Amino acid sequence: MRVCGAGRAAARATCRDGGPAGVRQRAGRWRAVGRYDHCVSDCLFCGIASGRFPAKTVRENSRTIAFRDINPQAPTHVLVIPKEHYADVAAVAEAGGGLLDEMASLAHRVAVAEGIGGSGYRADFNSGPDAGQDVAHAHVIGGRPLEWPPG
């Protein structure tokens, strides 16, 4: 299973205009939109947020969830996602309502709970295919000295 593939016709669910979930038709072509009705059926993160797929949850609230990365790059490597599907961090910011603030706050609470709040950590939002990102999420990375520039 891939992580999202937002805007691709592979999404099985449909939205109100009859197209694949997360896309809208413009000039005869489907294109991705920032926010989805709730989740995309073939999105791993949506599956984790809905409980369909297991994850080692670290912290959770009504709109966000934090869980351990399956391929950690440091002693602490946790992902923070919104429980609704957003294509990227810009879409989360445009949604308003304090959701981006909530993700950042949860990232900080994870760092404190993991014992790296004082020593330092990286809260990283990757955006777009060149950054290896298909859906909005943040990484909380720490527990060792982190180099700059990253990867």
Provide a descriptive summary of the structure in words.
The protein has one domain: HIT family, subunit A (2-Layer Sandwich), CATH 3.30.428.10. The protein has three helices and seven strands, in the order ββαβββααββ. The chain has helices spanning 44-50, 89-95, 99-113, and strands at 23-26, 29-32, 57-60, 64-68, 76-82, 121-125, 138-142. The strands form two sheets. The chain has a five-stranded antiparallel sheet, with helices on one face. The chain has a two-stranded antiparallel sheet with strand order 1-2. The radius of gyration is 16 Å and the shape is globular. Residues 1-37 have low confidence and may be disordered.
Layout of strands and helices, then pairs:
Blueprint: E1 23-26, E2 29-32, H1 44-50, E3 57-60, E4 64-68, E5 76-82, H2 89-95, H3 99-113, E6 121-125, E7 138-142
Antiparallel strand pairs: 1-2, 3-4, 4-5, 5-7, 6-7
